[in-house]
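Need Superoxide dismutase's 3D structure for a figure. Predict it.
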Amino acid sequence: MAPPMFRELCLLLALPILARGQVGDLPITTSNATALLPTFSLPELPYSYDALEPSISKEIMTLHHSKHHQAYVTNLNAALSTSIDSLTRGDLVGYSSQLSAIRFNGGGHINHALFWQNLSPPSSSDSSPDAAPKLQVALEATWGSLEDFQKDFTTALLGIQGSGWGWLVREKGTGLLRILTLANQEAVVQGDTPILGVDMWEHAYYLQYLNGKAAYVQNIWKVINWTTCEARYVGETEDVFADLRSVIG
Ligand SMILES: [Fe+2]
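Structure prediction for Superoxide dismutase:
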C-alpha cells in the first residue's frame, strides 16, 4: 500500500507549485526542485569492520555496510529524485511509481543506521548491560529480569518469517516497553522510540552462520551497545530521521 503521509505531503507541496509554475521566485525545473530535497549518505561505522568478531565477521560487516546499506542509500536518493522529477513534469503516475521504492529504501537506511549504533565491540564497556541502568530497571519491571527479556526477544527474532527486523521500542504516550517485529524494511514510524534493533535478513548472518540463525542471535547479545540503548530509552538521542520517518510512515 502506498505511504499516505508521503503522498499527501508531496501533493500538498507540489500542486500549488505546479499551479503557479514556479518554486519560490524561480520557474519550475527539475534541478531547482531537486535542490530542495535532502541527500542521504552512508554513515560511517563507529568501529572497524572486524571489531565485532567473533560474533559478526569482518566479511559480513564489510558487505553489509559498504554494499547493502549503501544500496539502500543510493536507491533512496534516486527514487526521491525521480519522484520530484515526475512531479515537476506533472506526471503523477510516474511519481506514484516511486513511492514503494522510497518506503523500502528509506526504511532500509533508517534501520541500518540505527542498527550500527546498537552494536559495540565485545571488549567495550558499552557491551555490558550495566551501561544501561535505567533501561535495566524498566526491563526487569516489564519482563521480570533481563534474562527473561532476552529470552522473549530471541523468540520474537527467531519467529520472523522471511526477512525482517526485531525491535525493542518505547511506546509513545505510555512510555511502556514492548517487542515489535517488522517485515522487510518496514521502519518504526508510529511515534514509538526504537531502542534496540536486530537485523534478521539473511545478509546479516548467512556468510558466517549459514542456516544457524539461532547461533547468530545468541552471539549478537555479546555485541549489543547498551550505552546506545540507555540513551535512546531516556530520550538523550536526537531522532535524526524524524523527517524521513514521517514521510514513509
Ligand atoms: Fe541488513
